[in-house]
Amino acid sequence: MITHKITYRVIYGDTDKMGIAYYSNYLRWFEMGRTEFFRYLGLTYKKIEERGIFLPVSEVYCKYLYSAHYDDVLIIETSLDTSVKASMKFNYLILSEQGNTILAKGKTRHAFTDRSGRVVRPPELLMELIAKNNKTTYDNKIQ
User: Which of 4, 62, 110, 128 is the most exposed place for a label (fewest CB within 10 A)?
Assistant: First the structure.
C-alpha cells in the first residue's frame, strides 16, 4: 500500500459560526490528499487529464469522529488500495497535528474514463508508477 501525508491548517473560511470545520471540507481535504499523492508519484492530475484520462468519483464515504477547528493543523493521510484492479480506491485519515487522534476517516473510488465519459481500462503509465512506488510513505506540507 502506498501512503502519502500532507499537512493543512484549517482556515477561517473552512469553518462555521462556531469555528468548527464544515463537514463538506473533509471531502475537499480528501481531494487535496489525493492530488498531492499523484504529484508525489510524479504524475499530476493535470498531466493525467492531458493524456485524455479522467478519474471521476464514483463512490465516497466519510465517518466523522471528532471536529476540526479553526487554526488546527491537520495531517491528511492518503493511501491507495492496490488490491483494486479496474478502478482506484483511496483511503483517507484526517488526523490531529500530533497524529494521535483520528478526526475523520473515509474512502473514494474512481473510475477511469476518456474525454467522452466512457469507462476505459486503467492506463498503463499510471499502473507502472503505482507498481514502482508500492510500499512507500512520504510526508509533505501544504500551508
Answer: 128
